[in-house]
Write a sequence for this structure.
């Protein structure tokens, strides 16, 4: 199989301008070899770097995704949640508010599933797991336990080593690369709860289009709707200011711009900086959900939660969704959901 990767390198590894693309079958065979840990370190590193140089097509990414998904331990809840697959390598500078966001959406009645690993290369930043750990939520859950969590509370967390062990096993090899690879993209698309709606983020609109086309061409996934926006530090939290939103539904792609100040986020991204991302994010989460903050963090939580409600179709407009998320932050329902998540996860 190492020979197969070397043969593919003759096509994909000739440089950014002259490199050719792989067929679906070729890319899936390459993914199989990688996940089986067959290639030698040098061959694997060269293949990953060649893919980074040439930029993967949706066809190739769909093949990588499908091979990964064929090995995933899926556990589907009774509710149909929004799948939130933020960049697994996390955040380093600004508060991670996605836990508060998901819990707030759940309090409105929109179930949310989040998933992450633990200090994933290359950034090894703070992810969902680390804020949940600080909040006293058990994150080392089996997929079945994750399913129970989302069904009972409306918010669920799936832990990569438990449901996607083959990708988790690549941690050291990915760390040695020193740069992101296509694995960083496809691991966010695993959709461990088999949700109909995916919410994600992007730096550039072209990437959002590529993700939507990838999910459309995937032979494993059958996703009805994708909502993506320009995320803060690449995470699934909309950045303050002028930003792009991309939507895909039933094969149709659309994009538009919003000014977050019009939705209550009239501040700069620097205003969301914290010193200790896991610890400070957990503290802010508790305070926002308990109604003890009425500031920039509360505004960011309300708007991001509204995006999840809107993405699932539980509100016709973002404005209507925002009114609902602000209500549950004021009346304490969101804090009740967090307490339930903590209790059920520890049971």
């Amino acid at each position: 199989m190492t020979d197969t990767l070397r043969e593919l390198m003759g096509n994909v590894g000739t440089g950014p301008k002259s490199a050719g693309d792989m067929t679906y079958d070729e890319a899936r065979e390459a993914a199989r070899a990688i996940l089986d840990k067959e290639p030698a370190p040098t061959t694997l590193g060269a293949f990953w770097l060649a893919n980074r140089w040439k930029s993967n097509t949706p066809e190739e990414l769909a093949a990588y995704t499908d091979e990964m998904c064929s090995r995933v331990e899926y556990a589907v809840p009774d509710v149909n949640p929004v799948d939130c697959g933020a960049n697994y390598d996390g955040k380093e500078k600004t508060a991670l508010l996605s836990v508060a966001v998901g819990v707030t959406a759940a309090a409105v009645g929109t179930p949310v599933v989040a998933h992450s690993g633990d200090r994933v290369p290359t950034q090894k930043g703070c992810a969902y797991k680390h804020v949940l750990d600080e909040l006293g939520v058990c994150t080392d859950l089996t997929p079945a336990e994750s399913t129970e969590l989302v069904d009972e509370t409306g918010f669920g967390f799936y832990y990569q080593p438990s449901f996607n062990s083959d990708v988790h096993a690549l941690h050291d090899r990915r760390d040695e690369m020193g740069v992101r690879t296509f694995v960083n993209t496809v691991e966010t698309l695993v959709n461990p709860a088999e949700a109909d709606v995916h919410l994600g983020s992007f730096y550039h609109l072209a990437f959002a289009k590529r993700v939507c086309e990838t999910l459309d061409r995937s032979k494993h996934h059958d996703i009805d709707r994708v909502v993506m926006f320009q995320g803060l530090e690449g995470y699934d939290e909309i950045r303050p200011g002028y930003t792009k939103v991309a939507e895909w539904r039933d094969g149709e792609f659309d994009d538009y711009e919003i000014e977050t100040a019009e939705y209550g986020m009239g501040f700069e991204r620097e205003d969301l900086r914290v010193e200790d991302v896991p610890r400070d994010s957990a503290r802010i989460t508790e305070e926002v959900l308990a109604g003890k903050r009425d500031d920039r963090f509360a505004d960011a939580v309300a708007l991001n939660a509204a995006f999840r409600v809107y993405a699932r179709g539980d509100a016709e407009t973002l404005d209507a969704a925002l009114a609902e998320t602000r209500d549950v932050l004021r009346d304490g329902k969101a804090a009740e959901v967090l307490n339930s998540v903590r209790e059920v996860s520890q049971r």
About this structure: The chain has a mean pLDDT of 96. The chain has two domains: 2-55, 82-346. Residues 296-311 form the longest helix (16 residues). Strands lie at 82-84, 112-116, 155-159, 197-202, 225-230, 242-249, 252-259.
